[in-house]
Design goal:
5-stranded parallel beta sheet; two-stranded antiparallel sheet; alpha/beta
């Protein structure tokens, strides 16, 4: 009888452990970041499943300079993995308009377009970590592997440019889970998502300049963190008009240091 009770206790303990592991797995599922747009220029809010981002020091919008504030500020951020001529064009516009942005880059851009990356830093833009190889960071097994992916990019940046990379991180494709958010936080990174983006990444399927311009201006809001891909031919074409239009509406362009200092 004692033997049967022991077997039952062991079996119950195994079931309990299995249950806990399954709960952790469910809660740590990979999530793709998104923000639901609205057309009255109000700030979008994150869905409940995305609240974990803020728990680990993540950012997607400027809540201090929200719709209730008279300070109309937006933040231009770019995910840049390679150069096709359009990144340089966008940098030209930013310089002419005296606007600073944040560039989340990959290792490929550093090694193949070093001077372009150095230019970003030298013209006052914030150069940030988008991982070395556009890796799915929800698949990493431990914090050492996570750290290695981000460190390898920073080492390349230091080696090729002589500069230190800012401790801002954006997961490739906006894909994350609680574990990856926790790792980034523990390693001292501020994870930056966005409150506005549109389908601009496919160079073989670009939106017209008119439609893209309308998409941006229809959805702009105070405190917007805007994600654009600087390889987009459409973005390169409209960047000057976008900046001038936002300035005309009274917006100014902030930096990630300003955004993250307020929380």
């Amino acid at each position: 009888m004692k033997f049967k009770k022991t077997i039952f206790s062991v079996f119950a303990a195994l079931l309990s452990v299995s249950f806990i592991i399954n709960i952790i797995a469910v809660n740590d599922k990979a999530i793709s970041w998104y923000c639901t747009r609205n057309k009255d220029h109000r700030q979008p809010t994150a869905a409940p499943e995305l609240k974990v981002v803020e728990q680990y020091g993540g950012y997607y919008i400027d809540k201090v300079h929200g719709d209730e504030s008279e300070d109309k500020v937006v933040y231009l951020t770019f995910d840049a993995g390679y150069e096709n001529g359009n990144v340089e064009k966008i940098l030209d516009v930013l310089r002419e308009e005296d606007v600073k942005g944040a560039f989340f880059i990959l290792g490929n851009l550093i090694t193949k377009n070093t001077e372009l990356v150095k230019r970003m830093a030298e013209e006052g833009h914030t150069v940030c970590n988008h991982t070395n190889r556009h890796k799915d960071m929800t698949s990493v097994k431990n914090i050492e592997e996570f750290k290695s992916e981000l460190d390898s990019l920073e080492s390349l940046y230091k080696e090729y440019t002589g500069y230190e990379m800012s401790k801002y991180y954006r997961p490739p494709e906006g894909k994350f889970n609680e574990t990856s958010m926790k790792y980034a936080y523990e390693l001292g990174y501020k994870t930056v998502f966005w409150s506005f983006a549109y389908a601009d990444w496919d160079n073989s399927n670009q939106m017209s300049a008119e439609d893209a311009m309308k998409k941006i201006t229809d959805n702009i809001h105070n405190g917007a963190v805007i994600l654009l891909h600087p390889t987009s031919a459409t973005n390169a074409e409209i960047m000057d008009d976008v900046i001038k239009e936002l300035k005309a509406q009274g917006f100014r362009f902030g930096t990630l240091d300003e955004l993250t200092a307020q929380y």
